Fold this sequence. Notes:
Layout: E1 6-7, H1 18-24, H2 26-29, H3 40-60, E2 67-70, H4 73-87, E3 94-98, H5 103-114, E4 118-122, H6 132-138, E5 143-147, H7 161-171, E6 174-178, E7 197-201, E8 212-216, H8 242-257, H9 259-280, E9 284-286, E10 297-302, H10 307-316, E11 319-320, H11 336-340, H12 345-348, E12 351-355, H13 362-381, H14 384-398
Helix pairs in contact: 1-8, 3-8, 4-5, 9-13, 10-13
Amino acid sequence: MSDRNIYLDHSATTPVRPEVIEAMMPYFNQRYGNPSSIYSIGRDSKKAIEEARQTVAGAIGAQPREIFFTGSGTEADNWALKGAALANQQKGKHIITTSIEHHAVLHTCQYLERNGFEVTYLPVDIDGLITPEQVKAAIRPDTILISIMFANNEIGTIQPIAEIGKIAKEKGIIFHTDAVQAMGNVSIDVEGMNIDMLSMSAHKFYGPKGIGVLYVKKGVKQSYFIHGGAQERGRRAGTENVPAIVGMAKALEIAIANMDNYNQKLTALRDRTIREIEEKIPFVKLNGHRKDRLPGNVNFSFDFIEGESLLLLLDMKGIAASSGSACTSGSLDPSHVLLAIGLPHETAHGSLRISFGEENTDADVDYLMEVLPGIVQRLREMSPLYEAHCKQQETQVTV
């Protein structure tokens, strides 16, 4: 095992910033009052929540009353789809989404299908993109909801959200975007982009785990999600996670303030890594759009190898990366995203996702490129498919 410790999986989660931890700490053991209580220590907690709500709203151009705190991005996606579908089903039962959404959206859509709704899953092109024209063509008289992720969690492709939002607005259809990966990496203006609902999660931008947000534009018809108390204006019951809410707001405030420098740094690391992998390792394919992608995202498929073995050998060298979504890392099935962009099963199994963060440096890329080519070659030498390919190449050269 290596004594190195290089973390290259920021799309899965990020460390919590020291400033965020510092902001959270008083709400664990000093200002710990229940926000629903009327005495001063409870009012302090309530004030902290409302200040956090204002910070989050300002980050996306929303109004504070349009921000609802949830337990995760997954919960926000579930609430967005189920809540809008149930509240608007008298208008129709047709939903439009894509084939590469996070499972928080896909599985929710499948649940809705089992309960009488119809869902159109738009196919993507080889880069993982859909077009506004595709969305427009899929709209029916009974379409009530369009849900398109802002940026893909595996291949990093960024969708034309503003154009899709414009179409949805013109047709009077609710438009939701899963912005869990985009938040903190991409500038988002919900009014300018005609976004009616948006999901985000704090642990993707150096905040704590277990806290998310659903933005719901004023006037959008939405059903209540968790019944019980009057928290979140009665829509999502349960005592608020005050430390996490405070931490999320602090993390987002820092992310927005530092976004330009952060993106410039990550884009440079990303582009260098893509260039060097393509130069130094044969039989590889970059997955996702080459330019319209998240600044820190690199996703490659390597022919003739198996992704899990690649990850284990990288881990032995002190490098933490992934083969796709952290939420499905225990599955033996190939990525639905990579299959959707047209990769065959055997190629999809050989994928590697690298996602950079603010602590990464050029030295990390130096080390990655020092060890990665050798690991790939070692695994290929163990592959009967690679051996057969080499023999075929030799035969063609001889002929």
